[in-house]
Amino acid sequence: MFSLEKMINRCRPGHGASCALCCGSHNYAAAPEEIESIFIDRGLDRTISIHGHPEDCSGKKLFDDAIQCPNVGMSREDPGIICCLVYDCTARENAISSFFNGTCKNFFCAAWDSLTDEEVLFAAELMSDWYYYSLFINDIESLKEEFSTYGSPQHVPVNRLAEIKEKLVQRLIDEDGK
Ligand code: SF4
Ligand code: SF4
Q1: Residue 125 falls within a domain, yes or no?
Q2: Ligand nearest to the CA of 21
Q3: How many structural domains does the chain have?
Q4: What is the 93 CA–ligand 2 centroid distance (Å)?
């Protein structure tokens, strides 16, 4: 079992990277830039902190049977970083509170116990974003392979980075689109 205290936070590791893949951040039939603008708008909307139940959705999904939680957003204080807007909201409806406490708070993806901190930081520094970083840390085998080949983000050639990104998007489509 991993120890949270000693670990780099996989969801927010620094270097401009962040993840909310398990919340459905990538489950939109839209380009990454369009998804990002939805996240920015949600974070700006201070009058509605919670946008719906996590099992609701706000846009056309890429995969109908997967989650697209309407509470993923970017807060004004942390531009570029995706987060759960429910965390900062104390006035939660019962149904949302129950899902949040029963499911969200207890979920840890494989990146928590299958990756080392060094591998997570390699991915964070290499991608420095929410879109590709999320996909990379959830493709454990590929990340381990690239880390063992290059060791440092600075050693990854530009064309190799483009190939990695392309492969990650393809995997997203192939594996979740079954
Ligand atoms: S997929 Fe893993 S790293 Fe990403 S938000 Fe969920 S728990 Fe955090
Ligand atoms: S409520 Fe927050 S943690 Fe739960 S699925 Fe939505 S964004 Fe993720």
Answers
A1: yes
A2: 1
A3: 2
A4: 14
Nearest residue to 57 (alpha-carbon basis) of 28, 34, 97: 28
**Per-residue confidence in pLDDT tens, the chain, 178 aa:** 667 777 999 999 999 999 999 999 999 999 999 999 999 998 877 555 677 888 888 889 999 999 999 999 998 889 999 999 888 777 777 888 888 888 998 899 999 999 999 999 999 999 999 999 999 999 999 999 999 999 999 999 999 999 999 999 999 998 764 4
Q: Do 34 and 116 fall into the same domain?
A: no
81 lines ligand 2 (CB under 6 A): no
69 close to ligand 2 (CB < 6 Angstrom) = yes
Q: Is 82 in the pocket of ligand 1 (CB under 6 A)?
A: no
* Domain identity same for 116 and 96: no
Residue nearest to atom 2 of ligand 2 (CA): 84
8 assigned to some structural domain: no
Tell me if residue 91 falls in helix, strand or coil: coil
For residue 136, report the distance from its CA to the centre of ligand 1, in Å.
11
